[in-house]
Amino acid sequence: MAVGELADTIAGFALFADLTTPQRENVVDVFAEQWFADGEKVLRQGLSGSGLYIVLDGTAAIRIDGVDRATLRAGDYFGEISVLLGEAPTADIVAIGPLRCLVTKWLS
Amino acid sequence: MAELEPQPFPPGRYPLIVVGSGPGGLQLTYCLRRLGIEHAVLSQDEAPGGMFRRWPVFQRMLSWTKPFTGFDRHSREYERYDWNSLLAEEEMHRGVMPEVMDGSSYFPSRPEMERGLALFAGRTGLRVRYRCGWETTRKDSAGDFVLGTTDGEYRAPILVFAVGVAQPFRPPIPGVAEVPHYGELRAVETYADRRVFIIGKQNSGFEIASGLLPWARQIILASPSPAKLSVNTHSLVGVRARYVQPYEDSVLAGGVIILDASIEEVKRAGNTYQVSTRNARENVSLVVEVDDVIAATGFTSPLRDLPDLGVRTVGQSRLPVQTPFWESASTPGIYFAGTINQGSQGMMKHGIPSNSGAVQGYRYNARVLARHLAEAHFGIQPPRRQIAADDVIPLLLAEARYGPELWHQRSYLAHVVAIDSDRGIVDQGITPLATFVDSAGHDGAAIALESNGREDLYPIVYVRRNNVVTEHLLPPDPLLDFERDEHRAAITAALEPLLSPSLAKPQR
Q1: How far is Cα B344 from Cα B506, in angstroms, rounded to an integer?
Q2: What is the DSSP letter of B11?
Q3: Which of B330, B356, B377 is the last residue in one of the domains?
Q4: What are the distances in angstroms from CA A13 to CA A16, A74, A77, B207, B494?
């Protein structure tokens, strides 16, 4: 999907609601689009080096020690604690059906 | 040579068809043949080499081949230093590239690369039906895929597309459709004393800027995000050092200008262009007048009608979304090889992608893919050797130090050993790391190399026990020797719960 379309998609998310279109395009530029198949893991409990994700389409489960605790939907984000503190995620995030996300690219 | 022989693979049904004769297609057909898998290879080109028959524009590769390393050029260890040769089982066919390079640079020239690929294809007897263009794809009632080609119809239950990512992409910005793309650059002397605006700050943009330094009066490079440099990211993310000269010229105020701005419009005005840019962060708009505009805005993969068959794509490059074994995640039976493998993202640890976009990465994917195809679709089980418990740690540390798959595909390919209750400890060889980490299976361990984008790389061991995976980072080493006592101690501690029951059990 092109930058402009992604910027339009995130316009509806509370996280980016206050930004102008050029600002949203800038935001999109630091993310990569990723797509996950049903059952695929996005984040892995206990494994370091994960990124910040924003759900564009679809749903994902927050799974701790194999038990689903909550569901993530379009506009939700996850992985921010790991990125900010450099710690491994405390849960698996698993795609439930097809899932499309934005993920941070290499961070300096 | 090949031209005098009748074209192989006439239209018909085959167990598997590979499309493409670039390095990705050549490496895969080589590996499939060694496993005895019958297949056809079709290519629209006239000769092997893929995009390297035309590009890079400035005729030299970005991937090096070091002639002198202390390792025999036909050894597996040498592959770490030779990013360009295709892989072979027979020693005599390994390390082709240093043989064809003239010593003027450790980056082969484009013609040297093309010659190296053709030599490999010739010496290993690879067969390709050239000048056979794939045009359409559909599925028949029997479940076969049907390829419509310029030579007629082909059928197969399994297809592998190795068709590259070299179709020019232009973003939907007003006026950009009319400016030349990277591959349409004119002869450099025609840019003499001209003002050139390059859209894009990736390697292709910087490659053009580097080539035009002795010619252009002014060069402006622009895109929304600041340029990243590989020397800062400790990875292939960012502009390679070869092309950093325009960056230095810019920071030393030599005449190159680097703008962090989005391009809003390119307008022709007589013999010049007006380019409107906008920096969203600082809310600054700028219109610049230049004589030439070049779109170094990336490439997409030429998937033709595959999306109509359900092949899902992702990102601006429209790469097909792939499983860890490079099968379309949405259309089973369709696989990918070569640089399109970038669409199988792997674990993206620390935000760093795999090297699957480059020969030195995807040549290993092809070998793993061939073995996977053999096992999953052809009932062929390539042998896997049993190893003694005492040999596990030396094997894994030697792989961390010398295994070229681990060096070139960090946090993407791993060397795996499994503890099988029937067979004891089995060396599983090279496996996609995501498969080991995410799948249920035997207890075992995987070793990989990891870059965190800031520091030197280090080995990392993943231990799977009762289907719970833990990671154990081994220390980095200033001389990249991962077989020191501290590494042995760290890996011994990590594998202790796994190996102590095996050590207690007699080896069968």
Answers
A1: 40
A2: S
A3: B377
A4: 6, 8, 10, 38, 43
In B185-327, which ranges are continuous DSSP H helix? 203-212, 230-233, 245-251
B263 and B396 together in one domain = no
Tally of structural domains, chain A = 1
Residue by residue, pLDDT tens for chain B (508 residues) are 555 678 999 999 999 999 999 999 999 999 999 999 999 999 999 999 999 999 999 999 999 999 999 999 999 999 999 999 999 999 999 999 999 999 999 999 999 999 999 999 999 999 999 999 999 999 999 999 999 999 999 999 999 999 999 999 999 999 999 999 999 999 999 999 999 999 999 999 999 999 999 999 999 999 988 999 999 999 999 999 999 999 999 999 999 999 999 999 999 999 999 999 998 778 899 999 999 999 999 999 999 999 999 999 998 888 999 999 999 999 999 999 999 999 999 999 999 999 999 999 999 999 999 999 999 999 999 999 999 999 999 999 999 999 999 999 999 999 999 998 888 999 999 999 999 999 999 999 999 999 998 889 999 999 999 999 999 999 999 999 999 999 999 999 999 989 886 554 544 4
Read off the DSSP letter of residue B419.
E
Q: How far is B133 from chain A (nearest CA, A)?
A: 27
On whether the CB atoms of residues B139 and B286 are closer than 8 A, the answer is no
User: Which of B172, B228, B351 lies closest to A2 in CB terms?
Assistant: B172
Range of the domain at B228: 176-297
Same-domain status, B182 and B111: no
Q: Do A106 and B237 touch (CB under 8 A)?
A: yes
ipTM surpasses cut 0.85: yes
Type of residue at A63: R
Per-residue tokens: B91 = 């020693």
Chain A and chain B share a number of CB contacts under 8 A equal to 91
Q: Do A46 and B470 touch (CB under 8 A)?
A: yes
Best to test chain A binding among B235, B330, B348 (most A CBs inside 10 Å): B348
- pTM for this one? 0.95
Which chain A residue has its CA at the smallest distance from B321's CA?
A35
Give A34→chain B minimum CA distance, Å: 7
Do B145 and B74 have their domain in common? yes
For residue B264, is it within any domain? Answer: yes
Q: How many domains does chain B have?
A: 3
**Is residue A21, in this structure, part of any structural domain at all?**
no
Check which CATH number belongs to the domain holding B492 and give it.
3.40.20
* Residue matched to tokens 């980490």: B437
State the smallest CA–CA distance between residue A12 and chain B in angstroms. 19
* Domain stops at, among B245, B279, B297: B297
A81 lies in a domain?
yes
Provide the domain limits for residue A48. Answer: 31-104
Rounded Cα distance between B490 and B393, Å, is: 10
Say whether both B55 and B127 belong to one domain: yes
Are B420 and B325 in a shared domain?
A: no
Q: Which of B172, B281, B351 sits opposite A106 (nearest CB)?
A: B351
Query: For an interface test with A, which of B223, B236, B262, B433 has the most A Cβ atoms less than 10 Å from its Cβ?
Result: B262
Q: Do B437 and A50 make contact, defined as CB atoms within 8 angstroms? A: no
